[in-house]
Design goal:
alpha+beta; five-stranded mixed beta sheet; elongated; HATC_C_dom; protein dimerization activity; TTF-type domain-containing protein; Znf_TTF; RNaseH-like_sf
């Protein structure tokens, strides 16, 4: 006797040999069964269209093959009911199915209430925080009736996870057990509410007894293996996998079946995968079917290829529980499954790769846009690496078609669309109209990308409201005068940025010519510098800072508030030049040093120097003596460092070269050897090395784009103070002791200054006898004539050359860290402070600024202690990627901080402090003052960095490059950290011609 023959009705009548039709008729007509379910309900939330469908004549169920595990439910079109919906609600037929969206375990709205309400329902009103809900919070139907809201999502909130949230599966072929299908209409028919005294456990029990088609609508067995509409596919694909717990099923356990000698069942541990680290990761592709008691791969079933969908796990399910773990492990490692996972991830992120999108009206557009995306990536790579694009021979038979075409070939190896495009180009005879690979297309795309970068920069500049100009010129390899315009401003986050806006050819290099070019650039890009420019920074050229016809003067005639700052880095170079050339001893010293550098640059002499380093310093890095630079005096410090650390190797090289058969080489090497072995040279070497240890880090620090004007001048003053401290007698004595020790360590004959006989002039008859001759020791003579003279010169030069900058700092000095601390400690501020700011910053209230300044200073320490200043900064500053410039050396940051005494908190830190505490609206005048102060550029080194890029892009082999190509390449190279939207770039490129519009824009 089969298990079905033992089935009983609620009236205790057994099925015995009754067939399915007769047994179903008995169940539907049994009065005992109906009375027991009188007070129960299936809380289903129907939309208006679904409620009307229930009132139609219901479908018939056609029975499939008895040996099959499934039944098909076929929908039959019916006429509209003539009676009211409320009457039809009482006359619901016994068997019904519907193809609209629904949810299980939700409250049913009366169809009359739905029709009389002003609410339009198009989708089930459900919102769940997880995949299951045991006790949903349902909106009152009265609230829904009284509202005028149009709901497109289900209005249900769930607070825990137990039952899966059903979703619309209107076109899915439901496949369930015959008993579930037979009783589905009956469950839909019994609209009974849960009693108030019923416990949550009773609710779970009642829901667990529902048909699987209602309780688990994401059951993978319900998903048709045939083609679905795109809308239905989107609904199914975005659902979570069906992974019920045993408590969610009937009898609160997975069904068991006998397999071999043992009775086995599915276990929920297969939902997880154990990693090598011991952690468990959820398998989002494993989906268990409660209706068929099988496991499916939902990812392969939906996103797999034709071959992948034929796998047992994707097509019919897997129920061999003994070998399930082995099957799952093997399946998730197959290439087809991994490809399906990639397709699913791209589909979820709206990057659909399903083949139907390539077969529609826009299939060719999709293909072309995919090709352009790869071309854009190649162009960005080459431009940001400053590489040439086109080769000498780009014909089809060439073995080297240039960087661009060769890179496209490389990218096509992993992209089927691009590879197919290249094959079409190669096979087609004659010219192809749209290859996207010609030099014209490259230039067009590069111009589009460059304009997109510049557009983002201009947008930030205009949003900042205040900015400053940094301008400089250089001569390129084609003997054209290139003018670089850098704009400094503060972005929305309070970070300072210095961005390249334009690089143009200055045909007239005079002050008036460059001013007219600047006006043309600003007019073209709509930059209102007359009202918003607050500062300008140039070098010391007469055409830039001339008081009559310089760019500075012409700009200030139209905008008097645009203060001029002489580049601090250039000024510091002049300070060092004054120091090195003012004194006779130091001038001779650097002359000998330059002779040594020029002499050692020959190939054979450099080889001898390297071999000598291997002998004396085997475990140290090999160094070379670099050439002097007349404009960048930091190179002098590098030469001094190499000679100090590799002194023995230098002397051995000169000794070997003095034995050369070449008379000029031998004589020069012998003379240099004699000079370098003297105690005077050693002492000057250590003296200038000590001086450069303060000036070089300061010079490097002044070239940072993130440094503000107040901070820069503070560091200059600290450097001058440190140099002034060196002028003490004990510091000079320490220098002489170090020189003596250095001479002894390197085996020099002279370990002190030689004694010179004082010459006494004979007094002739009739002459008056002079004052008594003062006899000075060699050490004291060196202190007076060399040591003190050098330090006095550099200190006075710093004071005089930075005097103009200190005038600007007159009122800005109140915004320094030291002034804020002094005000916090009780010091008062003068009555006439901030008077200069009134003429410099428009619309600023001086009285309110004073009040805000005093209030902020008093609570400054509390704000400072509440936030870590280091965390206020980003990891990288704009422009720091240009590390190929000689002016910038990030490796000396530690030395810079220690030797220049950089202030602990800068004006930029204070702006970030106001930003982080949201105090901008509370201190508007103070924030504006700090913003203007931080916008002042302290250096024009950013222009020098752009010139370094110019030398890498416009080389000797690319000297004929046109300006309309050079400018976008400069923008892409200098501003590489600005992101580019590829889709927007394609649209902009498509709008350049009608042919490209047809090929790249969707219809």
């Amino acid at each position: 006797m089969s298990s079905n023959e033992n089935e009983k009705c609620d009236c205790n009548k057994k099925r015995c040999l009754m067939n399915d039709v007769n047994w179903t008729r008995h169940l539907n007509a049994c009065p005992v069964r109906k009375s027991k379910r009188k007070n129960q309900t299936i809380k289903t939330f129907f939309t208006l269209s679904q409620a009307k469908k229930i009132c139609k004549d219901f479908t018939r169920i056609s029975e499939c093959d008895k040996n099959s595990e499934t039944l098909e439910v076929e929908a039959v079109e019916c006429k509209k009911p003539t009676t009211s919906s409320s009457e039809y609600e009482k006359k619901i037929p016994e068997k019904s199915t519907f193809d609209g969206p629904y949810t299980a375990d939700l409250e049913v709205m009366n169809t009359d209430d739905i029709e009389n309400s002003n609410t339009t329902f198009e989708e089930p009103i459900v919102s769940a925080t997880s995949t299951c809900l045991p006790v949903p919070e349902v909106m009152n139907t009265d609230d829904i009736e009284n509202s005028n809201t149009t709901y497109e999502e289900p209005i249900v909130s769930a607070t825990s996870t137990c039952l899966p949230v059903p979703v619309p599966i209107s076109e899915v072929d439901f496949v369930a057990e015959s008993s579930a299908n037979a009783s589905m209409a009956e469950h839909l028919e019994t609209n009974i509410d849960l009693q108030k005294n019923e416990s949550p456990e009773d609710l779970v029990e009642s829901v667990a007894s529902l048909p699987y088609a209602i309780q688990f609508p994401n059951d993978p067995a319900f998903i048709s293996n045939f083609t679905m509409s795109p809308e239905l596919f989107a609904q199914v694909a975005l659902q979570p996998p069906c992974q019920p717990a045993p408590f969610d099923l009937k009898n609160h356990k997975f069904p068991t079946k006998k397999q071999g000698k043992y009775t086995r069942s599915f276990h929920e541990e297969h939902y997880f995968k154990k990693m090598a680290s011991g952690k468990f990761v959820k398998r989002i592709w494993v989906s268990y079917s409660p209706s068929t008691d099988k496991v499916y791969c939902i990812v392969c079933k939906l996103f797999g290829t034709t071959e992948c969908k034929s796998y047992k796990l994707a097509k019919s399910g897997y129920d061999d529980w003994k070998h399930l773990a082995y099957a799952l492990k093997n399946h998730e490692a197959t290439p087809d499954h991994l490809q399906a996972e990639i397709r699913r991830a791209m589909y979820v992120n709206n990057q659909r790769v399903d083949l139907p999108s390539f077969q529609g009206l826009n299939s060719k557009v999709v293909e072309n846009r995919e090709i352009i995306k790869k071309i854009i990536k190649a162009l960005l790579y080459l431009s940001r690496q400053n590489m040439a694009f086109r080769g000498h021979d780009e014909s089809k038979t060439s073995k080297n078609q240039g960087n661009f075409l060769e890179l496209i070939k490389l990218l096509s190896a992993d992209n089927a669309v691009l590879s197919s495009h290249l094959l079409k180009i190669r096979d087609v005879k004659g010219k192809n109209r749209l290859t996207f690979l010609s030099n014209v297309s490259q230039n067009k795309i590069l111009n589009v990308l460059g304009e997109m970068v510049r557009g983002q920069i201009l947008q930030k500049i205009k949003a900042s409201g205040v900015y400053s100009f940094i301008i400089d010129t250089t001569t390129d390899v084609a003997n054209l005068e290139q003018l670089s315009l850098i704009v400094r401003f503060l972005n929305e986050d309070g970070d300072v940025e210095e961005r390249l806006v334009a690089i143009k050819v200055a045909s007239d290099a005079s002050g008036l010519g460059m001013f007219n070019l600047l006006c043309d650039i600003c007019q073209h890009f709509e930059i209102d510098w007359v009202n918003n420019l607050c500062a300008q920074s140039y070098d010391g050229a007469a055409s830039m800072q001339g008081c009559y016809s310089g760019v500075k003067t012409l700009v200030q005639e139209k905008n008097p508030r645009a203060i001029y700052v002489w580049c601090f880095a250039h000024v510091l170079n002049l300070v060092v030049v004054d120091t090195c050339d003012k004194n006779t001893v130091t001038r001779i010293f650097f002359g000998n040093l330059q002779s040594l550098v020029s002499f050692m640059r020959a190939r054979k002499r450099t080889a001898l120097f390297i071999e000598a380093q291997k002998i004396y310093y085997p475990n140290e890095r090999i160094c070379k003596i670099k050439n002097f630079s007349n404009t960048r005096w930091t190179s002098h410090h590098q030469v001094l460092g190499v000679i100090c650390t590799k002194y023995k190797a230098v002397m051995k090289t000169l000794k070997d070269l003095s034995l050369s058969l070449d008379r000029e080489t031998s004589a020069t090497a012998k003379n240099l050897q004699t000079v370098m072995s003297s105690f005077m040279f050693v002492t000057n070497l250590l003296l200038m090395k000590n001086v450069f240890e303060y000036t070089t880090p300061l010079s490097l620090y002044l070239q940072s784009p993130s440094i503000d004007f107040i901070q820069a001048l503070t560091m200059v003053d600290n450097c001058a103070k440190n140099l002034f401290d060196m002028r003490e007698d004990h510091t000079a004595d320490k220098l002489l002791d170090n020189a003596r020790q250095f001479a002894e360590d390197n085996g020099l004959e002279q370990t002190c200054f030689p004694n010179k006989r004082n010459i006494i002039k004979k007094v002739m008859d009739g002459e008056k006898k002079g004052t008594e001759t003062i006899f000075l020791s060699p050490n004291n003579r060196y202190k007076i004539e060399v040591y003190n003279t050098v330090l006095d010169q550099i200190i006075s030069s710093i004071s005089s050359r930075f005097e103009g900058a200190r005038k600007i700092l007159a009122d800005l000095s109140f915004f320094s860290y030291e002034r804020l601390i002094s005000i916090n400690e009780g010091c008062s501020i003068p009555e006439d402070c901030f008077i200069y700011l009134k003429t410099w910053i428009p619309n600023i209230e001086i009285d309110e600024l004073k009040m805000e300044y005093i209030t902020f200073a008093k609570c400054f320490m509390e704000l400072k202690n509440g936030i870590n200043i280091k965390k206020l900064h980003n990891k990288s500053e704009p422009g720091d990627e240009n590390d190929d410039d000689e002016l910038h050396d990030s490796s000396s940051d530690t030395e810079t901080e220690s030797n220049t005494d950089a202030p602990k908190i800068t004006a930029l830190d204070i702006i970030k402090l106001l930003n982080s505490y949201n105090l901008i609206s509370a201190f508007p005048n103070l924030y504006t003052a700090y913003k203007y102060a931080c916008t002042i550029p302290a250096t024009s080194a950013s222009c020098e960095r752009s010139f370094s890029k110019l030398k890498l892009i416009k080389t000797r082999l690319r000297s004929t490059m046109k300006q309309n190509l050079l400018e976008p390449l400069m923008l892409l190279s200098c501003e590489r950290n600005i992101e580019i939207n590829e889709d927007e770039a394609i649209n902009n490129y498509a709008n350049t011609s009608k042919i490209l519009k047809e090929a790249l824009l969707f219809k």
